[in-house]
Amino acid sequence: MDQIPVDQPLANALPIEDYALIGDCATAALVGRNGSIDWLCWPRFDSGACFAALLGNEGHGRFLLAPKSQGTSTRRYRDDTLVLETLFDTPDGQVAVIDFMVPESPNSCIVRIVQGRRGTVPMQMELSLRFDYGTSVPWVTKRQGGNGVVAIAGPEMVVLRTNVALHGEAMETVADFTVSEGQSVNFVLTHSPSHLPRPLSIDADDALYRTEQFWAAWASRMTYSGPWAPAVRRSLLTLKCLTFAPTGGIVAAPTTSLPEALKGPRNWDYRFCWLRDATITLFAFMSTGYYDEAAAWAEWLHRSIAGSPDQVQIMYGIAGERRLAESTVDFLPGYQGAAPVRVGNAAASQVQLDVYGEVMDALHQARGAKLLTNSQTWSLQRALLSHLDSVWQDPDEGLWETRGGRIHFTFSKVMAWAAFDRGVRDAEAFGLEAPLDRWRETRDTIHATVLRDGYSEKLGSFVQSFGSEALDASLLLLPVMGFLPHDDPRIRGTVAAIERDLLVDGFVLRYRTEDGKDGLPGGEGAFLACSFWLASAMHLQGRTAEARALFERLLALCNDVGLLSEEYDPKAGRLTGNFPQAFSHVALINTALTLSDEAIDRAVPAAPIPQAAD
User: Fold this and answer.
1) Most buried residue, 253, 384, 445, 448, by CB count within 10 Å?
2) Residue spans in the chain of domains classed CATH 2.70.98.10
């Protein structure tokens, strides 16, 4: 655990890698290693933030709990849990701050326990609640019957309970106190709708015990025992934390507008659920023993896409919501000045043909594992393929959600091929009624079209779009989808071309952004999921030593508590993009499985769920 000074100025957010995640499977908070909670949306992942200092400064809301004197800090998750322990060493002594949220609690709450470990340490607490992304200052009153306050702004109510005296100062609730060796001071912050009675108090120590038991029991179910088990387990815990328990939906990240390039404009809201995450997330869960989570995700997928096939979106809200209108929050200056800050995501209305392949692939795997029945899904799948048969030849915006206009992306066509391929496989394997002759014909036509128009003889590689000579890291997934074997010369040529033209310091770019053809200013970090894909491709081509070396380099990019963002800036040595990123952690899990030769073959159904003995 690295040590850093804890008296850094709080006018701007910390480096992304200096945050840790806590959550309760309904929402999540980011805790800085300086003791400040700088991001929290309550009561759901997609609610307005009440702590938004991450995208501005302390005036936009935060919850600071730290020593008053200069010192250093180290931190860790307590065993295999989402309970964060930050240890502060100061000239006055040593103190630990234990932070967590309580799963399965009637009201979402944050518990912060200060424990004296050595000496007597003067501490400070500063609570600045600013609802609706930093705009709404609540009306704060003292809590009757004990220390604490009640903060109300419109529909929101937050209650702080503690055993130290509080007072108001400059529109904040603050406290100065000391903690000595063997002493504990508790702070419990609970959310509730303002029209309901105040939430009941909870015992902090009991909540700590229950929370540790919850996460430890969940982590113990992991069946992977390969050489990277600790990193895989931490990634699985992160995915579980990003799950919205009531629906099974998994958000891509708990944050919005953390920039893909430092101080850049590529800032998006990722607090939603993407269809393209469905298959790889199912693989990650099923391959590591988490069939309940896989089933919940498959059920979310089925409910969300139900309806008219021509209205399928690339992404939905955590309960399947379809209206995700994008707007800018101009009063927030952005993460370390990276503007604009966006809420909602306009990509929800884009046409991205690859999602049909991802959906069909996910349902193909879910059927093979008996997560969904034929009666639940087959009629919907037939309708999706009927619609895709009429649109697969159209251009689209592609999986990277470009904003420069629709073109014929090679990967989109490959995934359209995959959709029909999985439909044919399911109909044949399970005896399901289907227009098989038509589906086989369309599948073969798409395959031939991609080989003709999506491959460059000059480059010896598949290309980003028909007729172009640009490369795209998504092409690494062609053999994974079963489009061609890993040892096909055209696949080998594609991997070689990507290594030649899309590597920066050994890490993989999604594609070259400098020409502006994606409709946005150029510049972004290396995309971590793509770098994991390259490691898998190397292994499957027999380059195992190179694959393991790249994988270890990627693992070294995890921050001190094992978390990854979306991208990495090799020049600055900084994590960039929304954080922590589910896509990156799923790619980590699946690559570890591949390198351990435990990965599921995406071209065949998954093994059925193990049945308990009678």
Assistant:
1) 253
2) 4-197
Please write the tens of the pLDDT for every residue from 268-321.
999 999 988 888 898 899 999 999 999 999 899 989 998 888 899 999 999 999
Instruction: State whether residue 513 is helix, strand or coil.
Output: coil
* Tens-place pLDDT, residues 433-465: 999 999 999 999 999 999 999 999 999 999 999
Q: Are 315 and 332 in contact (CB under 8 A)?
A: no
Burial class for 351, CB neighbours closer than 10 Å (0-12, 13-18, 19+): middle
DSSP label at residue 487: T
- Residue 67 in tokens: 């020593």
CATH 2.70.98.10 fits 4-197, yes or no: yes
Q: Which of 533, 543, 541, 544 is nearest to 589 (CA)?
A: 533
Distance CA 589, CA 513 (A): 28
- Phi and psi torsions of 366, nearest 5°: -65, -40
pTM over 0.85: yes
Instruction: Select from 1.50.10.20, 3.40.50.1220, 1.25.40.10, 3.90.1150.180 the CATH code of 469-599.
Output: 1.50.10.20
The residue among 576, 494, 454, 466 whose CA lies nearest residue 527 is 576
Query: In three state form, how does the secondary structure of 42-69 look?
Result: CCCCCCCEEECHHHCCHHHCEEEEEECC
For the residues of 134-158, what is the DSSP string, one character each? HTBPPEEEEPTTSSEEEEEETTEEE
